[in-house]
Design a protein that fits this description.
five-stranded antiparallel beta sheet
């Protein structure tokens, strides 16, 4: 059985608040605190949610996408695409 693995992605904050989980071989999900804020399926571009919270989550998002705010998507779009990726098990 392959269990998910995790790592941190931002060095200047509490590590438990910036986890990225490797859910499957092809799906990674980034969290800010307990909220998923980005995901990547193998062969597809990263999908990063817009900042609906504040400066700390903004710092986390910048660590994920290098501050490319123009490519971030709405919360509703993000949630629907993440649900699709999880339902599909993010096929390679």
């Amino acid at each position: 059985m392959n269990l998910p693995t995790w790592d941190t992605y931002c060095d200047n904050t509490t590590a438990a608040n910036v986890l990225v989980f490797n859910v499957t071989d092809g799906l990674r999900v980034w969290f800010s605190y307990k909220t998923p804020v980005a995901f990547k399926c193998h062969g597809r571009p990263i999908c990063v949610r817009s900042n609906d919270w504040g400066p700390t989550t903004g710092k986390h998002l910048n660590a994920i996408d290098g501050g490319d705010k123009s490519s971030r998507v709405s919360g509703a779009y993000f949630e629907s695409k993440l649900a699709e990726a999880l339902a599909e098990s993010c096929p390679v």
